[in-house]
Amino acid sequence: MGIADLRKEYTRHGLSETDVDPDPLRQFQCWFDQAVAAELIEPNAMTLATATPDGRPSARMVLLKGVDNGGFVFFTNYESRKGVELAANPWAALVFYWPELERQIRIEGRVERITPEESDVYFASRPNGSRIGAWASRQSSVIGSRAELEQRVAELEQFYADRDIPRPTYWGGFRVIPDVIEFWQGRPNRLHDRLRYRRNNSQWIIERLSP
Ligand SMILES: Cc1cc2nc3c(=O)[nH]c(=O)nc-3n(C[C@H](O)[C@H](O)[C@H](O)COP(=O)(O)O)c2cc1C
Predict the structure, then answer these.
(1) Which of 40, 50, 52, 62 to mutate to test the pocket of ligand 1 (most atoms within 8 A of CB)?
(2) pLDDT tens digits, residue range 51-100?
(3) Which of 17, 152, 182, 211 could connect to 106 by a Cys-Cys bridge, CB 3.0–4.6 Å?
């Protein structure tokens, strides 16, 4: 079978204007809770798209670590490719895809760093191995070999053997503050339901988009 012959009908749910919450963050929480209840593998994995100021996009997966203060929080290295792109052009798009539920959520908005104190709290909750990893990796830079990385980890493990591992200042959280969120529910014959929330001042407007 060729790739073009792969074809699936979506039949599980519908999505109607009368069912959804007027607040898209509450609607997100509702769908997220259902994804957790369905025991999906890493329901908090999402694609993060960023772009350079002259418009060259890049995308990668990151993990959602919270929804608070009106936005979606993830953690990373501020000096990584995504970190550098976000510093220069603080706009991003996120995509969740939950195939078992035939659902996709698309989020767009401005990005800000969370406070150092918020990043400290999350960093402190990570296992030691992940904290050492944050120190060992200059994320997105070229390294000579795997051995080089492992050597650096071994040195750090020794150094931090009997002291607390602090958060590197170059590592922390970003929050995507949405101005557009679209909920997509797969339906038969590609006649999918798409409800898009867009922010108009402090109000959310809900519109149905053609599939
Ligand atoms: C499922 C999954 C979850 C990931 N979560 C994160 C994350 O939360 N933070 C992060 O910095 N990288 C995460 N990564 C690694 C990124 O996809 C990426 O390789 C890394 O952040 C470097 O991206 P960049 O060079 O574009 O900055 C994850 C990868 C996968 C496959």
Answers:
(1) 62
(2) 999 999 999 999 999 999 999 999 999 999 999 999 999 999 999 999 99
(3) 182
Q: Which of 26, 60, 110, 190 is catalytic?
A: 190
Residue 82 Cβ < 6 Å to ligand 1? yes
d(CA 120, CA 117): 5
For residue 63, which atom of ligand 1 is closest to its CA?
8
The answer to whether 153 and 133 have CB atoms below 8 angstroms apart is yes
What is the DSSP annotation of 68-82?
ETTEEEEEEETTSHH
In contact, 71 and 81? CB cutoff 8 Å = no
Is the overall model pTM greater than 0.85, yes or no?
Answer: yes
Domains and CATH numbers, the chain: 9-125+169-208 (2.30.110.10)
Q: Which residue has the tokens 């510093």?
A: 87
Active site residue 196: no
Residue nearest ligand 1's atom 19 by CA: 60
